[in-house]
Design goal:
about 35% helix, 19 strands, binds flavin-adenine dinucleotide, Vanillyl-alcohol Oxidase, Chain A, domain 3, alpha+beta, 4-stranded antiparallel beta sheet, single chain
Length: about 500
């Protein structure tokens, strides 16, 4: 009887083993969308500087972990004595070597991050420039305060944010320059100056949006606001309806505080960069309640899995768009969220975006176009991305009001829509050349539609394109050499663009 049963039992075991092996292989394959195994084997060279996109690695002389002003002054003295250049880095999320260069001493400002004063009466906060928005949020939330202007994520430093003049989702106060009251700046000669609209106003204009070329931003006083509850609402429409919808329904509504729009990444030609979901955060009514407790990131593995799938497959992009739209549009229930939480994970995720494949990377780009030319620009934008076969993973649109104070102003005149795209591109020379060529076409498209592009990303645009987008650039770089005649502060960004005279 035992012998009669042994054959089927052996066959059963073989099937079970095969099924287990198949499941294991499937699990391993699925995990490659979440984990970069090659990255686990990587040994970090502490002197190989890179930003988050890993496009422009460079060997630096040393990295100084900054904790105090006295230490900063000593490091500058030593660098000058050794004939070394200096670069300044925050969270290193700029993507074009703005925070380092070959052979430089890099000041890592992340440890220079004390919260100095929280003043709920004056609605201001004073912090050291290496503090991240997350650290600022944690310090001010218990006082019932929230940040006025910050990026979509809270990982960036205050110094990095000022140096890019970042913008956020608030539709009344859009650029960080608007909320900076004052800061102290350490100049190349080791002296410290107070900078505000009244004191050293030229430095105020040069440093905000000046990419670390004029000195080290020390402590900064920023205007903040009261934390409050918002109701998050979303509506889907065709992109051609968006500018009028924004002008008639969003902008004039005094109760709407934050807004963003998300064009479709579904490769279906009827949908790709045509369908658009507009999300608004409107002050909650008196009967609506919600929590002011700070939220943290959730579902990282799940979201990484779907983002990873969409890097490789068009069907997964369509699926991600459908799921995202379903979540964003909701099922009719009121979604109440505090201002602080609207500006931190999980609503503004971070870990999801961490990606370190040795073969490819995710690049972000941003174009600012007048609200009147948004529709023709988006048509050209779509055409160029499709012709260039770009692997577009996400796109958002924000509203930015003009401000001509920064010498390198990206929106000096009228209201603009900031059009952002994130694409996955190969790291090989050929793939990079293709990404650069597509980017130059996109920059030309923005310029032809009366717009500009964001300097915080790759160095793909030509110096002539930068001069066209920023007619004041030559003057700004000349003034850099006035304040820093030995060009102590430098970066890959400055070396590419800082010495090209306008044609
Ligand atoms: C996923 C992602 C989302 C983003 N979202 C937005 C967004 O919503 N809105 C937006 O406007 N931008 C956005 N950005 C761009 C971002 O705001 C800028 O790249 C910003 O500069 C990053 O800050 P950081 O701390 O990483 O600075 P870093 O990249 O480390 O440095 C940026 C520049 O600041 C200089 N710098 C840093 N600290 C100091 C200091 N203490 N003194 C003087 N100079 C200093 C550096 O030298 C460098 O030139 C985004 C970028 C990424 C990658």
């Amino acid at each position: 009887m035992g012998e009669r049963n042994s054959k089927p039992r052996a066959t059963g075991r073989r099937w079970a083993a095969a099924a287990a092996a198949a499941l294991l292989a499937l699990g391993l394959y699925a995990s490659t969308f979440v984990v970069s195994y090659a990255d686990l084997l990587r040994s970090d060279d502490p002197l190989l500087a890179m930003d988050v996109a890993r496009l422009a690695p460079a060997r630096v002389a040393r990295v100084e972990e900054i904790r105090s002003v006295e230490q900063l002054q000593a490091v500058l003295r030593e660098a000058r004595a050794q004939g070394l250049k200096v670069s300044i880095s925050g969270s290193r999320h700029s993507q074009g070597g703005q925070s380092y260069r070959e052979g430089a001493v890099v000041l890592n400002m992340r440890g220079f991050n004390r919260i100095l004063v929280v003043d709920p009466a004056a609605l201001t906060v004073t912090v050291e420039s290496g503090a991240t928005w997350d650290e600022v949020q944690r310090a001010i939330a218990s006082h019932g305060l929230a940040i006025r202007v910050m990026q979509s994520s809270n990982i960036f430093t205050v110094g990095g944010t000022l140096s890019a003049n970042a913008h956020g989702r608030d539709i009344d106060v859009t650029q960080v320059v608007e909320v900076v009251e004052r800061f102290r700046l350490l100049l190349a000669d080791g002296s410290i100056v107070e900078v505000s609209r009244q004191e050293n106003p030229e430095l105020f204009s040069l440093v905000i949006g000046g990419y670390g070329l004029y000195g080290v931003i020390l402590d900064v006083t920023l205007r903040v606001t009261r934390d409050e509850l918002y109701e998050q609402r979303s509506v889907s429409m065709d992109y051609t309806d968006f500018p009028a919808y924004f002008a008639q329904q969003v902008k004039p509504d005094r109760e709407i505080a934050l807004a963003l729009a998300r064009p479709s990444i579904d490769p279906d030609p009827q949908s790709f960069l045509r369908e658009i979901v507009v999300v608004t955060w409107r002050r909650a009514g008196s009967g609506q309640t919600g929590t002011f407790e700070l939220t943290e990131e959730q579902h990282v593995l799940r979201d990484k899995f779907f983002l990873g799938l969409s890097r490789r497959y068009d069907w997964a992009k369509a699926l991600r768009w459908t799921l995202q739209k379903r979540i964003e549009l909701g099922a009719g229930e009121a979604r109440i969220v505090s201002r602080n939480n609207a500006m931190r994970p999980p609503l503004a995720p971070l870990e999801l975006l961490e990606y370190r494949s040795p073969r490819d990377t995710d690049i972000i780009q941003e174009y600012y176009v007048p609200t009147e030319t948004f529709i023709p620009f988006l048509d050209r934008f779509r055409e160029i991305l499709l012709a260039g076969d770009m692997n577009v993973l996400s796109s958002t649109v924000r509203y930015v009001t003009p401000n001509a104070i920064p010498a390198l102003a990206y929106a000096p005149r009228g209201d603009v829509f900031a059009v952002i795209q994130m694409s996955n591109v190969g790291l090989s020379t050929a793939e990079q050349a293709r990404a650069a060529a597509v980017t130059r076409l996109l920059v030309d498209a923005a310029l032809d539609h009366g717009g500009t592009y964001y300097l915080t990303y790759q160095l793909y645009p030509t110096p002539a394109q930068l001069q066209r987008a920023y007619p004041n650039a030559w003057h700004a770089f000349e003034r850099k050499r006035f304040y820093d005649p030995d060009e102590l502060f430098t970066s890959q960004f400055y070396e590419r663009y800082g010495h090209t005279e306008p044609r």
